[in-house]
Amino acid sequence: MILHKFLNDAVCDLQSLIDINNLDLQDIKEANHDAIFSRLESKNNLITSFENNKHNADNEMVKLTKRFPSKSIEELLDDRAMELIDLMRTNLKTLRELNKNYAKSVVAVYEFYNSLVESILPSEKVGYSNKSFSKVDLVNIEA
Asked: How far apart are CA 95 and CA 99, in angstroms?
């Protein structure tokens, strides 16, 4: 069934994204930023692929409901399709948690580097949050 193919491909895309995000979490802890950046294109391609597969699966389910309007979608889908949909939900929840943890790590690294820059480069506050580094101050960097 073509619906199975789209659902299975979407699940595989999510699993690949989970695997990459696990690598990213490990690499951010080790400050291996080049490895993280090298995977960005792969992640973007997987996201696009997932969106396309999910869209195609949605279209197949819409076709089914139009063909059999008196039946619910649960009645129209077989056990395998329901299993793949459940797996997709599970993978999406896992990916969401990984992304949340990754975001926390990114913020921590950002804060660390900001505090490091502020301790090395003298700055003046301009407005509420903007920092201004004058050329003269940059020459007088504290080491």
From this structure: 6
**Among all chains, which residue has been given the structure tokens 């869209």?**
55
- Beta strands (DSSP E) in 1-143 are 124-126, 130-132
CB within 8 Å of 68: residues ≥ 6 apart = 75, 76
Structure pTM?
A: 0.78
Cα–Cα dist 8/14, whole Å: 10
Q: Collect all residues with Cβ–Cβ distance below 8 Å to 81 and sequence separation of at least 6.
A: 1, 3, 4, 7
* CB count in 10 Å sphere of residue 60: 17
Asked if the model's pLDDT at residue 134 lies above 70, the reply is no
pLDDT the model gives residue 109: 80
pLDDT at 125: 59
